[in-house]
Please model this.
Amino acid sequence: MNSSTGNINDRIRELGIDVPDVETPITTYAHTRTVGNLVYVAGQGAEVHGKIGRDFTVQEGYDAARSSGIVVLSQLKHALAGDLNQVKQCVELLYYVHCTDNFTEQHLVMDGTSDLF
Amino acid sequence: MLRRALFTSALASFLAACGKTEQVPEAETETPGKMAGKVDAKLAELGIELPEAATPIAAYTPIRKVGNMVYIAGQGPGNQGVVGRDYTTDEAYVFARDAGISVLSQLKKACDGDLNRVVQCVQLQGIVRCTDDFTEQHLVINGTSELFRDVFGEVGLAARAAVGTNSLPVGFVCEVIATFEVRDA
Model:
């Protein structure tokens, strides 16, 4: 258990988040790879299609980034045999925002994932 | 699940507290010479001859090793152009496969010529140079992923992200960046 945040499962319930169990097959990529104590999670997207700056606002993008983050948590949970309390820290987060050419608030969109974590 | 036209994509790595995770496969008991022959035989079966590892085209090193991890710099195919304008998805798939072959050349060098030391492909980032409305980046990068799967089996499939961009160095159609876990010699 991570002493600074208490039980992660309780915290997730408090936030009203459902982290669904995933049983997705490996096709042309793996959802996670584990090396020692590091878990690498594959790129996860939101089920929303379009461009920010044209089809969606920053806030809508933020919500989509949060949804992507929940999928990351699902994959992470699967990799940890269901126990998210094993997580010590998020080491690195890389993100891509599908946006118009002149859009410059990618960082505010991806706060949706960062704030969730 | 594959998602087309990613609205946002998050690629993350986490540190977990204990080792209650998948086991690294036991090292084979065969001699190193025979082990090297296994992957080489697979490459021959696939009709792949690995070229000499490419030298850097700018200020970077093609390979970095940290412990048992091998980080390989972005590799591109010998083709230039834009997918969705100059090339179809199927054509670009072949270019992504070619970029993967360049990765294998670098990896072989990093493994002192013995590709059978590869434990798994850990992470793969595939970047596709494409038109603004192109949404099949994941199908293009399958060219790399399926090559690694054919060569190494299921452990060749990485935690992956495939994205599109408008431009790449020297006009490459795609670029792939890979990280592998390898055994000690």
